[in-house]
Amino acid sequence: MFNDILNSFIDPILVINKEKDIKYVNASFEETFYVNSNLILNQNLNSIIDEDSPLILLINKAIKNVINLKEDKLVISLRNQSKKQLKVSIFNTFVEKDLIVIHFEQNLKNQTFIYHKINSKISQSFSSLVDMLMHELKNPLSGIVGATQLLQKDLQSSNYVEMLDLIKFEADRIKTLLSNMENLSAGEGNISLENINIHKVLNYCKSSAKNSYGKEIIFEEIYDPSLPDFYSNEELLIQIFTNLIKNGCEAQNNKGKIILKTSYNANKKFLLNENDLPEIKPLQIEVIDFGIGIPDSDLQNIFDPFITKKHDGKGLGLSIVSNSIRTLDGSIEVSSENGCTNFCLNFPLQKSEGLL
């Protein structure tokens, strides 16, 4: 009679004794786990399930403490390679005190939740990617618009050639950025490397700022002219220093002073991990502004995405800076107090194996 009742259940049912010998399985259990009841009845449960399986551990706990247990999500792996994630309920019976009934149920509600959660994460990741793309497009577009406006006012000036060069360069930056984003979405992460003059990069970023968001900023350049070229990627370097300079301008309401400083510093040593030898990254660049500063409580997470105190900010600029520096095998430190913030970057001079 009881067998007929249990066999009518649409959910898998397993009955064992306290020695974990299999006493009964219904038709649904056979179908779900691809087993034949004639072959497994009176066999120990360990013959079809690993003894260190989460299900076995849960059953042992129920038997030892004589309690009923329930687990909403449990991965059931059988020795025949069948694998299911199910809701499991374990009952100690009172009619037959030696028997344990195990009920398996597909948790559709939970599966739906997981499905929506995964889709939500995908949507959020896509949204973050779009935000990052738009954020990076704004910087070269600002240079294009600013240069065009100046060109319109002063077409007869000898500066028009420089303005046109800037427009072309910024347009090329947009094309390169979009190409890089396409490579990223296709799973291709290679970047091109070449010998770079850091002062040329800094001068370009300064000129771009002066033509758009930093018109009233005074730039002081403290450059070490003896610095050699180094192996890097010009586009990523422009991303890095454009974001840092723009942050410095905004911290001073686009009025004030920014110091761009370069030096050779072989005293700093960086550990990739405790097993590595210290690495020297002697090319040092500092971007110093004299704005409101960064509170100590924010210094630990300023490079995390979506962390911002700006009213209309996305919190992506410094996250992009951090990722780009990591890609180039560089490092960045920040110190700040009211009235002065210093972003100090260090890069190796030689080609790093991580960039090959």
Tell how many strands the DSSP assignment holds.
14
As residue ranges, the low-confidence spans are 108-123, 183-188, 311-315
**Rg calculated over all Cα atoms:** 32 Å
Give the integer mean of the pLDDT values: 77
Count of individual domains: 3
Beta fraction = 15-25%
Which bin fits the share of residues in helices?
40-55%
Helical run tally: 10
Cα distance spanning the termini: 72 Å
Describe the sheet with the most strands.
5 strands, antiparallel
Brief characterization of the structure:
The protein has 10 helices and 14 strands.
Feature tags:
356 residues; alpha+beta; Beta-Lactamase; Heat Shock Protein 90; five-stranded antiparallel sheet; five-stranded mixed sheet; 10 helices; 14 strands
Task: Explain the layout of strands and helices.
Elements: H1 2-7, E1 13-17, E2 22-25, H2 27-33, H3 37-40, H4 54-65, E3 69-77, E4 83-92, E5 99-105, H5 108-153, H6 160-185, E6 194-196, H7 198-210, E7 216-222, E8 230-232, H8 234-251, E9 255-264, E10 269-270, E11 279-280, E12 283-289, H9 296-299, H10 317-327, E13 331-337, E14 340-347
Parallel strand pairs: 7-9
Antiparallel strand pairs: 1-2, 1-5, 3-4, 4-5, 6-8, 9-12, 10-11, 12-14, 13-14
